[in-house]
Amino acid sequence: QVQLVESGGGLVQAGGSLRLSCAASGGSFSFYRMGWFRQGPGKEREFVAAISRYGASSNYAESAQGRFTISRENAKNTLYLQMNSLKPEDTAVYYCAAGAMRASYTGRADYDYWGQGTQVTVSS
């Protein structure tokens, strides 16, 4: 059983930056593909980014491409999401997730464990 705890959310002005962290415990962190999802007000939870077990490959939603960077430090059991050039439409609760390596990685069903989320609010 893997426990995930996100941190680093907050209030930021448009154009600003935030770095989210996700601390993992209770399992072998490097065994899992890791992902970030977000859920905005009145919206479905959506894929943001994913990274392979050892960080060799990463993938992004179109909305995150070029502005967000996903990374991980397996020695610290920690996942990151660096978010730059933030926009009001990035306002959401951001969740980290861990899943076994599967062919797909953008769906909620592709992940086995979830954190509780951290709120990111971008003001205009």
Features:
124 residues, mainly beta, 4-stranded antiparallel sheet, 11 strands, globular
Draw up the topology in text.
Layout: E1 3-7, E2 10-13, E3 18-25, E4 33-39, E5 46-51, E6 58-60, E7 68-73, E8 78-83, E9 92-99, E10 113-114, E11 118-123
Description:
This protein is mainly β and 124 residues long. The protein has strands at residues 3-7, 10-13, 18-25, 33-39, 46-51, 58-60, 68-73, 78-83, 92-99, 113-114, 118-123. The strands form two sheets. Strands 2, 4, 5, 6, 9, 10 and 11 form a seven-stranded mixed beta sheet that branches. Strands 1-3-8-7 form a four-stranded antiparallel beta sheet, with no helix packed on it.
